[in-house]
Amino acid sequence: MCGIIGCVGGQEASEILIEGLRRLEYRGYDSAGVAIIDNGIVQIQKVKGKIADLQKILNKLRLKGTIGIGHTRWATHGRPSELNAHPHHSKDITVVHNGIIENYRVLVPILKKKGYVCKSETDSEIICHLIQMYLDQGLKMEKAFPKALCQVRGSYALAVLYEKEPHRIYVAKNASPLVVGKGQGENFVASDIPAILNQTRTILILEDQEWGFLEKDNIRIFNLKGQPIRRSLKTIQWSLATTEKDGFRHFMLKEIYEQPMAVQNTLSGRLGNGHQRIDLPELEPLFPRKKNPFERIYIVACGTSYHAGMVGKYMMESMARIPVIVDLASEFRYRQPVLDSRCLMVVISQSGETADTLAVVQMARQKKAKIVSICNVMDSSIPRISEATLYTHAGPEIGVASTKAFTAQLVVLSLFSLFLGDLTKNLNRKDVISAIESLSKIPSQMKKILRPDAVYQRIARKYAHCPSLLYFARGINAPIALEGALKLKEISYIHAEGYAAGELKHGPIALIDEGVPVVVLIPQDEHYDKTYSNIEEVQTRGADLIALATQGDKLIPKIAKETIFIPKTQWFLSPLLFSIPIQLMAYYMADYKGTDVDQPRNLAKSVTVE
Ligand code: F6R
Questions:
Q1: Which residue is closest in CA terms to ligand 1's atom 10?
Q2: Residue 601 burial by Cβ neighbours in a 10 Å radius (0-12, 13-18, 19+)
Q3: DSSP secondary-structure letter at 238?
Q4: What is the pLDDT of residues 365-400, one digit of tens each?
Q5: Tens of pLDDT along 484-518?
Q6: What range does the domain containing 39 cover?
Q7: Would 243 be classed as within a structural domain?
């Protein structure tokens, strides 16, 4: 989704803005632009395409201004083009915007009648005209800006320059993320923390319906009524290295390799009493007197996080014997779900900003359901309105395709399920202790799978030209088959489908023909024999089998073209280990094809619009 960066202070803005835009690239974009106040005049430069092209232009211009705003655009309203790229401009006002102004079609003709004509096809442009209109009516900027904000409906994160106040950046936020960074004699604004982490670690997070301004030595925030807001600053602890590639070809590969550490960090402090107990103090207020007040659990999320939720259902139902319903946030919010205070709503979101998931939390709150969110980005919008948040400690995830955040979500879901199993007495002490023992081994088992292995390059060479791949598995690994297909599709653009193996006979087996690549996940669990029968069915029809099997399995290598061995673990933890080869397979296929692995076409890292 669109990214915003802004700076005001001592350093030349053009360098800071370009570096910030680079750090926002991972969110996905199709055009970029900046506005810099140079010698009192706003200079706007925009390009369709890459930030490097924008940088070339700025290098030639050599602007010395120290105040500016920048934007990466991910097109929603209006095709990708230079005209539609931000910043947008109206006489004295220059605006960058992330979000969607839902009532722009109503506002465009009203503004036109008054002589303010939109030149682009975007919803965003009306914002600068609205502010300008109020300025022209004689209002001061500190009145005109909030008045314009009150006229727009929808979501916005905004950074605004006013040529007559060339020492200030105005900012505002509603339902799209925006953070302010405090420096020494300079201040910053950005869509997310990694964009300014090289400049400052002191952050102020704006809340919905707040606006304010930044000057070199001053940050002021107000609500829409104009009342000042006092907010404490936060110090960010992540190291800068976590937001850089560290010698890996892509962020995605680096993040795949960071999984043992991400799991370790997510477990850290949660295995209490010398690894005898699950400690999730965040959940305690929801389970007074250590009793379960909930009749059922909904797990709601989008994309990869939804697949984590599907795995969570297997864990929770088995360990806690509480019915679990899993749904896509984009569907759930428009159904009439039966929701009340007896429901526990578990929402999963790496970014904590996904528009559909956020809307589900708002809906569940109205229905008095209790909300536990599982998020990776601290203090993002979803945690801020949840009763409790179980953070995954995967560190910043920059690659658009989610990897380490996904396995960290699986860790949290397994801890949560063990917590519930213990609470409902469906698990005894021995079960919990043995589960903890297996969980603690996961990082070292992951490292074994992550050893550099030519198998993925060989698979890529052999199958990257194929038009389509099928993935299948049973039980708790069926969602990992879906995730494998999603990973491959999104970064390699190769068509792929994932199925629960039992579904093959109900349709997909018709796709099997000589040489069709089929990826099967077959751990040695209670489903082994049934999945093995499915393997034989596709193999006799000519499929090329790529199997992920448990270490020591003697049968599978005899029937599969390629076998990748996975260390043995307890059933509910096998998705954590089986996820890694499917990520690596997708990565090497995409890299072999030469696609833009970290920023696949049309995709955005945090989907802050519907
Ligand atoms: C796929 C992927 C997406 C996200 C989805 C939800 O690799 O990353 O499918 O999982 O957009 O995002 P979050 O988890 O931030 O709510």
A1: 304
A2: exposed
A3: -
A4: 999 999 999 999 877 889 989 999 999 999 889 899
A5: 999 999 999 999 999 999 999 999 999 999 999 99
A6: 3-237
A7: no
- Cβ atoms of 596 and 586 within 8 Å: the answer is no
Instruction: For residue 544, report the distance from its CA to the centre of ligand 1, in Å.
Output: 30
C-alpha 327/C-alpha 301 separation (Å) is 7
* 311 token code pair: 């795995």
- Report the separation in Å between the CA atom of 376 and the middle of ligand 1, taken as the mean of its atom positions: 11
On whether the CB atoms of residues 341 and 369 are closer than 8 A, the answer is: yes
Q: What stretches of 179-294 adopt beta strand conformation (E)?
A: 179-182, 187-190, 202-205, 210-215, 218-223, 234-235, 271, 277-278
**Burial class (CB within 10 angstroms; exposed 0-12, middle 13-18, buried 19+) of 143:** middle
402 lines ligand 1 (CB under 6 A): yes
Cβ-contact 547, 564 below 8 angstroms: yes
Helices (DSSP H) in 247-354: which residue ranges? 251-257, 259-267, 272-275, 303-320, 329-332
Is residue 338 located within the same domain as residue 388?
yes
607: Cβ below 6 Å to ligand 1? Answer: yes
2 is known as an active-site residue: yes
| Distance from Cα 470 to the centre of ligand 1, integer Å | 21
What is residue 72's three-state secondary structure? strand
CB of 591 sitting under 6 A from ligand 1: no
Give the pLDDT confidence of 280-290 residue by residue, as tens digits. Answer: 999 999 999 89
606 Cβ inside 6 Å of ligand 1: yes
**List 254, 313, 404, 605, catalytic entry:** 605
Give me ligand 1 centre to Cα 8, in Å: 33
Parallel/antiparallel/unpaired status of strands 202-205 and 234-235: antiparallel
Distances (CA, A) of 374 to 353, 416, 419, 608: 12, 10, 15, 17
Pairing verdict, β 93-98 and 169-174: unpaired
Per-residue tokens: 458: 């060989």
- Total structural domains within the chain: 3
Residue 342 within a domain: yes
Residue 569, domain member (yes or no): yes
- 7 carries an active-site annotation: no
Ligand 1 pocket check for 490: Cβ under 6 Å: yes
- CA of 320 relative to ligand 1 center, distance in Å: 27
Q: Is the CB of 380 under 6 A from ligand 1?
A: no
Which pLDDT belongs to residue 27? 73
pLDDT surpassing 80 at residue 312? yes
Top mutation candidate among 346, 392, 607, 609 for ligand 1, by most atoms within 8 Å of CB: 607
CATH number for the domain harbouring residue 181 = 3.60.20.10
Ligand 1 proximity of 305 Cβ (cutoff 6 Å): yes
Maximum CA pair distance of the chain? 82
